[in-house]
Amino acid sequence: MLFGEEHVRRYQETDGEVGHEWEGTVTLLLTTVGRRSGKERTTPLIYQPEGDAYVVVASKGGADDHPAWYKNLQANPEVKVQVKGDKFTARARTATPEEKPSLWRKMTSVWPQYDEYQQKTSRDIPVVVLERV
């Protein structure tokens, strides 16, 4: 998580005036329902728009296991998204093998570290498409 709970809280309080821009890129807030707890969990993630959708990467810094938020959306793909002051429900899906190369390039253009993360793990890092419903 980028800078964790404080990032989420300030982003929510200011409609993204604080927290949307981060480390030279932009972030959104993704809220999933915990697959075991049933509780909502909100995570700040680097994103890029893709048509009417948004794209995020389940990198977990190149760890060998998927991030919890990705496991949660696999169990329940209906999520909440906040981009600045725009709050909406979305359906999350993993990019298809055909979509992934161009989406990966789009994401590494704003956060080159994703390539380093992929080199650190044998896990195929998923690219996730968040489609407004």
From TrEMBL:
GO terms for molecular function: coenzyme F420 binding; oxidoreductase activity. InterPro entries: F420H2_quin_Rdtase, Split_barrel_FMN-bd. SUPFAM superfamilies: FMN-binding split barrel (SSF50475). It catalyses: oxidized coenzyme F420-(gamma-L-Glu)(n) + a quinol + H(+) = reduced coenzyme F420-(gamma-L-Glu)(n) + a quinone. Pfam families: F420H2_quin_red. GO terms for cellular component: plasma membrane. Belongs to the F420H(2)-dependent quinone reductase family. This is Deazaflavin-dependent oxidoreductase (Nitroreductase family).
